[in-house]
Write a structure and sequence with these properties.
homohexamer; 331 residues; alpha+beta; five-stranded mixed barrel; 42% helix; globular
Chain lengths: 331, 331, 331, 331, 331, 331
């Protein structure tokens, strides 16, 4: 584990020295007004990212020795310029391979990935529909895909935007959908849960997460809905005697899960399972965004009476943390 | 129980005589092209409504003896004119009070109202928050309101548009919300369930259900959101030491439960409980509408391959009955 | 060729007898106000459809001898009831197989299909990109698909809603796109024309055209964009060494050709060829709709000063036939 | 009266010293790039607000001696940094109570509040409807509410965003509505004027105006429409024999005065008086915004040929000052 | 004056004979189910229009003796068929020129046109701006235009859709604008009133009102905004030394008076006078529509508790007649 | 030709001296934090614009010797401050008239204007409709208008925003429309091309292009659609016996060419030629914007795998340069 994280610097004494390992997200040579050159960096780790400036380099070759995507060891101090936190870096070098723990460098789920994976497999194990069970088993038996499924974020920003976020989101949805399914007898539970597992599977190729979270070119041009549909169709076509009607319904659920044409689904939900999938997916994403916003308010020192910042996925709405506000009142 | 219902007439032999009791929803004196007067009626019962024509009246005083809102006993036959079913009525008289069972005359919930009511009270009993428990207990202790709550439809048309529909909808929502609440630790379960119980309470005055389902003038001018908020506020003001912050949150949940300004909520949900209330309310209304549409398709003799009619509350979308379609395939 | 067509009946003397062959689009047993049974039919041919009533059947078994989708020979007369044209049918029987020319029974392109097909192949022949040429050649070498491509309408209603309409639309677009391509040097002409050929290929399975034009269940749940994308992807995957970037661009063009999310494209055009495809597709559909509307105005006897009826695909706009209006002025 | 106001500083010689009293709207400790600490303030008075920096503090205890919401006496000079005006503060201390005139510290109406209040009472005096007269008299007889009504701004930003702005807006509307009412005989003048007086009354609790203009938590969660409706309902319920139909109409006018669901009114205007209220309210707010924008253009030295800045409440439109532009032409 | 009007027939005893003069709005030859020919007419006068059927013609030449746009004398009776009032016409002939009073045949303003005209001139007389005064004087001095201005309806349907409706609407607006102008000192009253007089002047050519109210081809292609702007521009160009800036403002007011691009104004109001013009125009149109709807409710026998029908220009809203509803309560 | 252009400075060594001539787009006196005055300029030429700062002026009179709109000779160096390129100017003087080539100072078409003009005249020469030919000939015979037509940009920003851009856009459109016209027989080619020539003619007065590109006051209040329509109408009115129907169609094409009310066209296209004009205008503008964006990406050193920046006229979409991306793959 690292000694110091980006998020720690907000409460760090100004001027106090730290040593830390960071991922280089951007690197630029610049000049001051008085024509003095300096190095401007964006450094990140799992807790966030920050601008850093190297005003004096002990050796000019250091600036050439690393690039975007590398990990560096930096010594410096934090300071605030125009109300924006910055790092002032005094010394810098490329990190050695054995100094780096990759999971420290990008935000990652706080859950145990192996445990999430076991939960996922447990849900599939519980299916009574043999065709849907072998479909999901086949998909997850592909080692490359399974590995990517465990690593992928669920989004570039917005909600569950961290390593393992996709898996965390899917397992949360499985639990939720499994609670909702018995309430409506018209629902086919296994079909609904299959939709949950596969709805965002295209994201393992839509996004890249080596250096920050980005869209791939393929992801930009096709989108995860199309990519996931194609993956599911190929897999079902490879399974002997997969029922054609069931195939159609599975594809429809992936296609329609955004719930509206203007959100990028080319078809609206036309079966009850697709409607429920769209609802729980939307609800879970928003609840996660609210939880993150509440955490952020506390981190930023806001009082219980203060509304959160504007939440992008809730139309820039500001929210109130019910429990905190009521707790405050009771004191 | 009535011998014959409106819905039965669709499959009745043309010309065969029936006797039945119906609620008069409209009455009009008209003339044929050849200047012959006749009586045109809209007659209804719990299974639907139908146009009926009285071509010959044994006694002209009969036409004066009843009005909109009365119950009549009619003898006649069913026939189809321009592809529209009609009743041809031969004899007609005002029904005697003891001949009429009011629950036969308007559509009503298929659930046992007493049982729904027990479930509702059971949920309130389970509350750990004493203030919310006494709020709901006080509201439901008002006998007139409790009676109206048991009778009211949840809507004029759309979803749960039948006697007892409001209670049925609320109990379904309580069950669903109770399943969802533990999944998100930031949720205050009792507050969420309180929102469920009160969100549509204004409908007991927004709608009237004596003769068909109509909006009252008050309902048209104020709406059930305002009426429910006022009722909740009055009740909380009457309770000694009701916590002011809790009052604010309860009012906010009623105000915001439609989820969007353009759906008539003057405020968007700004606390997690209000967001979840909006989601489960919307989901339950849509699932009920889908179920009704599936039932209607079967009643109309549509095959499993045929999509339903266009569902108003789902943007005129047509749906496919998953289970029926898959079942058909397996045969 | 048939002796009499639906469209002819509008100008037929009322009461004059005709004999004709028609496709049965709907059949219903009904009763008059006076309880007399009759048969109500919707009969169609390539020029339109009309309601027909059989008041007296020489033999009751005739009504059982045919069904929706059959072709019948009917003798009767045309009349106008409440300003709506109708057929009064006196005699009726199932048509013999050799009496029926299927192309007479549904609206069909006025172009020579073989000639359109030759033009299509000619455009592909002109490609300089070998990969795109073998892609299209492979697609059109599938005999079942080629047959469906020659028969399919381009839409259920709206534009090119006739047998061969899809091919007619594609050939018109190829000609237009080929004129536009050299005007913009950034355009890759072969890629653009490939998009034109494949953009609506999914319609061969989205629609059925045996008895009228209908959506298949598969078409309703997946849509022609997804179905066409899958077909193209499968074909490209089957071609050895098909360039992966080219594959991506072809798929993107099909996905994005509706030009807007709310029109069912899950991605907006992000390459110049996709943008141009969306423009020419939209323009050609609208110009065809205008031409049809002008033809209809003339058929209905409207004067040159009268605007057309409201055109659905042009936001219910009414149009003026420029040439006719100016011609009228010059006289 | 203060010697120097924020607005004066724009035309102040750079470097020239001033002394002034200001309200502290924000206070933050910061550090320069070279790790030197300084104090960053937002200081305001009735003419606007400005950033101020204290680079050297004679005594470090001074920074602790005041907080957001306090009034300070500052000596310093104005300067422009990156084209943005700033204060450079040399000396600073907490102001003494008798040095402060609160009306100098927040923007306030330029009208005489006592005179506006007399006009308001005069309109109520002129009512012929005794019930509406006693309703408004009762509301304004509450001393706390009357005081708040005289102080409250009409908005946080946008229009009439100054102390007394609510009263100024209401009196302007009364005058305007009184001119419009006789033009349409279907209008009930007293009802219309009652709606004018009460429509924004909820703003006295939706907003706070002690330190700048802010939304209260209650205001954020309920909104002034709900808060005003509740206040009016409580008052009418307290009046013996207040006609129930009149009560309903008064509540409807408050509820519907924003004119559209998407502007936060849960009901659209359904009586002529509510429609007119929405029109005059909207017009008056826009005319005030235009007037402010014209004043601002002159203050900023724009010529008569230049359009104003973009007006938020007019869809970011820019306006032309007719009279000024014509005057310029006549010279 | 005519003896009998269309509106009278609603309360006419069925079967009782009447004689009347009507404008022929449509004429069609039709046939009954049993092949019997009859004549179907739409007849109108200033109170409305009604379908009429001539079952037996004493002389077949009569049907050829008149056409759409002619006035006929008809003898017949009123009857109700399928709840729709109809005329059964027994005798019919072309009216003689001296039998016809044209103002009886189309709906017309209930105001005295000469008096409205005097009011219009009076407002212009009151102008202090000589350029605007000579502009309006010049426009209204054109006898053909003045005649059309006195006759034109203000719309095809919607509001003021009757002969003289344009003038009635303009005079109402002048009165209203003259009341509003002094309330806002930034307004140039003469410019505002000039905008009022000219804003809809293009309607004298956009609409035709010889036989019912229709759009001309020119009106359909250009619209009254463009036609009015061109007329105003031509007139101002013809006046020596008309100030160019004033010309620009007048044109801008006509262009922008619909207030929104989507309502057909190519520019939004950018001067205060244009904003006010848009407001009062919109308000006056809506108030007139409400008044008409209230009148219609009374004519149709609706009670004071019943909402009106849905008002097209108010988003299909239903309204409540305040005064009637309150009056009813007081009894 | 100038020695150095704004665009060159991006790749200029920091600190290296240059001499250049630039147009002064803005000039402001400012002060540093330490109260030192300096001069802040926006300098531009045909390749772009850049901020420049003069820290030391050899003679204070220099700052007074020039103003916005003048051309200056500057000596200085480029540097990057906070990642934004800037000029540091050491010496500065007003340029001499004979040192300035105006076409160097604003962005201008890369085509030969004389050649574009010849092409334009050539298209008109090819007309077979004599009325349309004399209309366009008359318009272009006005020397002032012809000069403005050759100079005007097609827009303030967005597409073809450079001197000669209007002419370049019109000639591109003529070529494109001439290719499309023969494809649809219902099109009147000469009418379509007339619409192309005149559709944006109002821009010669809507925009000014002396110092940067700005809207005139007249342009802001009336817009180029109205101004172009008026110009066309005046010209047609001046031609003896110009056919009135043709005049109406020409005006309609100018009015409707933006294709939607919300884009500022007061009428939607109602003739086929107007529809096609709207399509090709829209397509050409977008294709030009894409081409500019591709050029910019190359200039900025983006790789072939990188999407462009967000394109304003394509809903902030990012695009991929097909040819470059495929070319990269082939290497």
């Amino acid at each position: 584990m690292k000694d110091i994280y980006i998020a720690d610097l907000a409460n760090f004494d100004e001027g106090k020295l730290f040593d830390g390992y960071f991922l280089v997200l951007a690197k630029q040579q610049r000049t001051t007004k008085t024509n003095k050159p300096y190095l401007n960096l964006i450094l990140g780790d799992k807790t966030g990212q920050l601008e850093g400036r190297v005003w004096e380099l002990s050796d000019p070759r250091i600036a050439k020795s690393f690039d975007r995507g590398d990990v560096v060891k930096a010594r410096g101090s934090a300071s605030r310029f125009d109300d924006r936190l910055q790092m002032k870096i005094d010394q810098l070098r490329l990190a050695l391979p054995d100094e780096v723990d990759k999971t420290d460098l990008l935000p990652a789920t706080t859950y145990d990935v192996a445990d999430l994976w076991r939960q996922l497999l447990g849900f599939i194990e519980s299916f009574t529909n043999p065709d849907l069970k072998r479909l999901l088993t086949t998909v997850l038996d592909d080692p490359a895909l399974a590995q990517a499924f465990r690593e992928a974020p669920a989004a570039k920003q917005l909600h569950h935007a961290w390593l393992g976020g996709l898996l965390e989101h899917v397992v949360s949805l499985l639990t939720l959908a499994d609670r909702v399914a018995p309430h409506y007898p018209i629902l086919d539970r296994d079909l609904l849960l299959t939709g949950v597992v596969l709805h965002d599977i295209g994201k393992v190729r839509e996004l890249s997460w080596d250096i920050g979270f980005e869209y791939t070119v393929e992801g930009s041009l096709l989108g995860h809905i199309q990519m996931g549909t194609a993956l599911a169709e190929r897999t079902m076509d490879s399974l002997p005697d997969f029922p054609p009607r069931l195939k159609l319904l599975v594809l429809h659920m992936i296609l329609s899960h955004h719930g509206k044409l203007e959100f990028g689904s080319p078809k609206l939900p036309m079966i009850p399972e697709a409607l429920v999938l769209n609802f729980v997916d939307d609800l879970d994403a928003k609840m996660q965004a609210i939880q993150s916003e509440f955490d952020k308010s506390i981190r930023e020192g806001k009082g219980p009476d203060e509304l959160t910042g504007k939440v992008w996925s809730l139309d820039q709405r500001q929210l109130l943390n019910t429990r905190r506000w009521l707790g405050e009142a009771e004191k």
